[in-house]
Design goal:
Blueprint lengths: L1 H8 E2 L2 E2 L6 H38 L3 E4 L2 H24 L4 H39 L1 E2 L9 E4 L23
Antiparallel strand pairs: 1-2, 3-5, 4-5
Helix pairs in contact: 2-3, 3-4
Length: about 170
């Protein structure tokens, strides 16, 4: 029975789908728009955080907050962009068997890029960290996997320190 179903689904290399009802199509469109909004929002957010940090390192900013994960995030932004475009195309193009084969080939390229980006990000992150330590002063590290504020002048680290006595509520003063 499975072979009969496959033979019924494939007709002249086209994927035959049952017609969606209006309710099903609306659910699909809303889910697709949600995925597009989340991926686009993620692209914008991570570009504005991780991308700006990397740019500020090489432009010589006075202070910035660097985390080794910024390099990984920046190198994986094209993967998120691919899936964003994929979700957009699924909304506006009919899903055919040829399109599925094309996207399967493209996803293999994306997986290859992701694997290469991961292995490039590790030494690149180390090189950037060493560069930063040679040019900037660290304002203390809370743990091996936490980010650090870096400044050119060590006196600027005072603005990133937490002072308990300054954080007391006004209730204690009364």
């Amino acid at each position: 029975t499975i072979l009969k179903r496959i033979n019924l689904m494939i007709n002249k290399n086209e994927l035959i789908m049952k017609d969606m009802t209006l309710k099903e199509r609306m659910k699909f469109n809303i889910a697709g728009l949600f995925v597009i909004a989340m991926l686009t929002g993620g692209l914008i957010f991570f570009t504005n955080t991780s991308g700006v940090v990397i740019v500020s390192i090489f432009t010589g900013a006075d202070t910035f907050y660097y985390d080794f994960r910024d390099v990984f995030i920046l190198l994986f932004l094209p993967v998120a962009g691919y899936f964003d475009i994929f979700a957009l195309l699924l909304l506006f193009s009919p899903f055919t068997f040829n399109l599925a084969k094309l996207w399967h080939k493209a996803i293999n390229i994306v997986w290859g890029y992701g694997l290469i980006a991961f292995f490039i990000a590790i030494p690149l992150s180390i090189v950037i960290s060493v560069y930063i330590l040679n040019v900037y002063e660290s304002c203390g590290q809370k743990g091996p996997f936490s980010g650090v504020h870096y400044v050119k002048d060590p006196k600027m680290c005072e603005q990133f320190e937490y002072h308990y006595e300054k954080d007391k509520s006004n209730d204690q003063k009364e």
